[in-house]
Amino acid sequence: MPAEIENSRFATTGRSRKGEPLVWLTAAGLAVGVIMALGLFLLILVKGASSFWPKRIELFEVKRGETSEMIAGYVTQTQERKDAEGKPVEELQIFRGNKDVSGEAFIYVDVRDIVSRSAPEKLLLFERLTYGPAIGEAVAIETKDGRTEAAAADFMGKLDALISKSEEIRAKALYIERKQIGKISAEIEEIGFDLKADRITEANAAARKAELEKQFATLKAEADGLNDGMAATNIIYRIADGRERPLPSGQLLSVYTPNSTGFFGRLGEALRRAWHFLKEDPREANTEGGVFPAIFGTVVMTLVMSLFVTPFGVIAAVYLREYAKQGLMVRIVRICVNNLAGVPSIVFGVFGLAFFVYFVGAGIDDTFYSEKLPTPTFGTPGILWASLTLALLTLPVVIVATEEALSAVPRGVREAALACGASKWQTIQRIVLPASLPGILTGVILAMARGAGEVAPLMLVGVVKLAPTLPIDGIAPFIHAERKFMHLGFHIYDLGFQSPDAEAAKPFVYATALLLILVVVTLNLTAILIRNRLKKRFAVSSF
Hints:
MetI-like fold, globular, alpha+beta, SH3 type barrels
């Protein structure tokens, strides 16, 4: 008997030891996956955050044959190349700005050609509306009232006041052009449609159009006057080669002194750049400015997608789990649902373009907007069709998660509700669904995470490089589901592969990627908090 016990113990120990390497292998695989994910996130975090950190501007004297050239800028990267003899040579990539002067914002300099390099405190970085940043030395401010030299004691104070005033004037002019003039333009266009549909007489249409055109001309003159007033004031600056350049105050966004600013000043400047990156519109082929329209479009599209996918996914799962007769047909449907989760996203994009845009959208135009044809209203890609396409894309995730949550509710709870006289629907509505709600929200969270990061289908059903107007604004009917929109994922693709200035766009790629991760995490955390609150709320009432 003791020998049998010993043999049994040895067999059990042997099987345990035999499986231990597999356990360690799975643990190692998990560790490698976590390390890779964290490494990628840290890379994006460091690169994205560093793109806002201001760098010191240096003045380089570079040998060019028998002469020398002065270059002002900051080093963006260092690389090695081989010269004609095959020897390694260190080369600096320098951002020198002044794209309107040199044509290229970046220049490569051989370290052996650098005669001297210094960091004068008088060098300034001018952020402009067009042509990117300018680097140079301030000379004077020229206004209609006179000229203030840079050597004056109150020069920087006057420059800061000028920047603040120009920002206010620019915001006022932009409000007139986008809001007031945009509203009048929309009304004028609507009059033409009303006249075509015989909803208004020609006399009334002409009178109303004349009145609106008069208002349009008045507002246009006011906006032009504001812009002309800013153009009358110039900041004169001197670039590295000694030439003086005028900069209209309307083009100047900010001035920064990188070589005379301490750590906290640099931190403040980095936070200011990050804030403007979040709240401004893109400019200069998306290589300058901010990404607010892309943030807005991403969040709105994800929320609208969730509003569509949640009820349809829950209804489908409830029917499959609670009402459908379990058999061959239901098993085939479940297999098809699971297979849909593996279909490439671009296929959903093609389907969305063909069904939602060309079929449903065209039908809506023929029925409700016939007076606007041949110009389509809903028969063209827009944020509504993009949301519906991604809802189809993520529908299998919600169905599978909801079915799992429904199956996890104990059978005894259902039988107790039925024994108390509740109908099947009352049992599902008041007992099963509240108990399954955390699992359902888990599926919705997974759907939101996938939908927010998808890009390929959006390229066919509504996303664009630059959207001048948002899907939600102050012009009636205020919600414009037919409009095209910007998306952070497509913005990353556009910056990385379609930008005319790849070097200037590189920091924005990392910054936008970091922002997309933060947006997805924020949406997911919000959904998780809602799920946890609902879980606590229904924990007692459901069981």
